[in-house]
Design a protein that fits this description.
The structure holds two protein chains of two kinds. Chain A is mainly alpha-helical. Chain A has helices at about 1-20, 25-50, 65-85, 95-120, 125-150, 165-185, 190-210, 215-220, 225-245, 255-270; strands spanning about 90-95, 160, 275. Chain A contains ten helices and three strands. In chain A, helix 2 (about 25-50) runs antiparallel to helix 5 and helix 6 (about 165-185) packs parallel to helix 9. Chain A is globular, with a radius of gyration of 22 Å. Chain B is elongated and about 55 Å long. Chain B starts with 14 loop residues before the first helix and ends with a helix. Classes of the chains: A mainly alpha, B alpha+beta. Strand 1 of chain A pairs antiparallel with strand 1 (about 30) of chain B.
Chain lengths: ~280, ~100
């Protein structure tokens, strides 16, 4: 009996070690880190853009409405893309319960600050940084720890790359087009709102056409680091314009048009690049 | 005093079910193909082990799709992981108690 018990203990320890060795992979850690940065950036930009005195409903700057589309479209697209991206990983780890405590506190903080902005009550700007860090740190630290712990791939050169499928290539270009249009027409409210509505309709299709290869989860599933980097550049540009919008009465086309073209070109190039195959095969 | 073997949980008396819970741990979600590779078992044996633990309320099977292919993910429940830890403690106590 004692020997059998010792054998079982040893066997289960071997399985645990094997799981530790095989995953969660570096890819999953990057996915978690990227999600943490995106969530924190969104909250930070949202609070900054709408903080007291720069973006309230009483302000007649039409840019205040278009900044909504600059924020909403990328964050919604990102959340749908990630549902596909996480399917790449054979082993996934849920966040520990201890992480939820600061996240809930940060959400409460975010709603409180947003409420103050609605009623035009000024508050110190460092509170925005505090809420942003309360989201970023608990999400990013476990991911960074996993990146340090997980072994590097033995031979990066041997990594198998494959071109994106046709629907995913097209969707990547469409996303670049939408991002470019949102930036370029930032000052023309009607165009900005129409582009946002079209983009939201496209995102919503993902929930209806679940079997289609043309939906965003499929895009997230196939994208590799080149495409995620391009998406990061596009999203950062949208967020920067969203943050700048309330501070400047109207953004100059000299700034918006070249940025829009650049974002479109980055996504266009990304659509033509292959992505690591990994779990895709 | 009762021998620690009385604290063993029937659900984990087969090597596959014990290994399955070891792999799932408290927070892992692992897909069927990866589990099969990790535990080095056949489809049918793994399916049976998962079904048993799901029926016992110790694991959850979640359906997903990958590139439009259906895929099953398995994760432990809180009560399942607690029961597994109690089982491990019983095994440790047995090894400490020595042969009887």
């Amino acid at each position: 009996m004692t020997e059998e018990a010792a054998h079982q203990l040893q066997q289960q320890q071997e399985v645990r070690d094997s799981v530790q060795e095989h995953g969660p992979s570096r890819g999953f850690a990057w996915y978690q880190l990227w999600s943490g940065i995106m969530a924190a950036a969104y909250i930070g930009v949202f609070l900054f853009a709408f903080s007291a005195g720069v973006g309230t409903a009483e302000d007649s700057n039409p840019g205040n409405m278009s900044q909504t589309s600059l924020l909403i479209v990328p964050i919604l697209a990102f959340s749908v893309l990630t549902t596909g991206a996480r399917e790449r990983f054979g082993i996934r780890t849920a966040l520990p319960r201890s992480v939820w405590i600061p996240l809930v506190a940060a959400l409460l903080g975010m709603f409180s600050l947003a409420g103050l902005s609605v009623f035009d009550v000024p508050y110190p700007r460092f509170l925005i940084a505090l809420v942003t860090l309360t989201v970023l740190v608990p999400l990013a630290v476990p991911a960074i720890a996993q990146l340090i712990r997980a072994p590097q791939p033995r031979n990066r050169a041997d990594r198998d790359y494959a071109p994106l499928s046709k629907p995913v290539r097209w969707n990547t270009v469409i996303m670049g087009t939408v991002a470019g249009l949102l930036i370029a027409f930032d000052n023309i409210l009607i165009v900005s709102m129409l582009v946002m509505i079209a983009a939201l309709a496209g995102i919503m299709l993902s929930f209806v056409l679940t079997e289609s290869r043309w939906i965003l989860p499929q895009v997230g599933f196939e994208w590799g680091w080149p495409q995620w980097t391009a998406f990061g550049i596009a999203t950062s540009t949208l967020f920067v314009f969203s943050a700048l919008n309330p501070h400047l009465h109207a953004l100059s086309p000299a700034a918006t048009v070249p940025s829009a073209i650049l974002v479109f070109l980055v996504m266009l190039v990304a659509s033509a690049l292959p992505a690591p195959r990994d779990a895709r095969s | 005093m009762k021998h620690p073997r009385h604290q063993l949980n029937d659900a984990f008396l087969t090597p596959i079910r014990l290994s399955l819970m070891a792999a799932l741990g408290p927070r892992n979600e692992i897909d069927f193909a990866t589990l099969k590779k990790l535990l080095e078992v056949e489809d049918s044996a793994l399916s049976k082990a998962i079904s048993y633990l799901v029926d016992a309320g110790y694991a959850k099977a979640l359906k997903g799709t990958v590139g439009n292919r259906p895929r099953t993910w398995v994760t432990s429940t809180a009560s399942g992981y607690r029961a597994y830890e109690q089982h491990l403690q019983a095994l440790r106590n047995i090894t400490r108690a020595g042969p009887r």
